[in-house]
Design goal:
Length: 103
């Protein structure tokens, strides 16, 4: 059994999978971090702008749709990761397993 793990770890496809997955997760994390920190900075340095109503006849402020947008973006980025994981990353995983089983 250890031999199988060693074969997988030594596989060029496995290293490619790990590298692609880490790079993609890092990029998505940086995007989310920038959006979240940007929102927090708006709260800290422009609270009056965020507290401005969208129109004169509503109590909904600019901050509400922006905050909802931050939440929606996090769900979208999660969906993008899952879509790629179920596609490209799963194909690479199956190729690695096929290679190891064949040897």
């Amino acid at each position: 059994m250890n031999n199988i793990y060693q074969q997988i770890e030594n596989s060029a496809q496995f290293r490619e999978l790990v590298e692609k997955r880490q790079r993609f997760a890092f990029i998505l994390s940086i995007i989310m971090l920038i959006i979240y920190v940007g929102f927090i900075l708006l709260i800290a340095f422009a609270p009056h702008w965020l507290g401005t109503p969208l129109s004169a006849d509503t109590h909904v402020t600019r901050g509400i749709p922006i905050g909802i947008g931050v939440i929606v973006v996090s769900f979208v980025l999660t969906g993008v990761y899952v879509w790629r994981a179920n596609g490209e990353f799963d194909r690479l995983t199956k190729a690695i397993l096929s290679e190891v089983k064949a040897s």
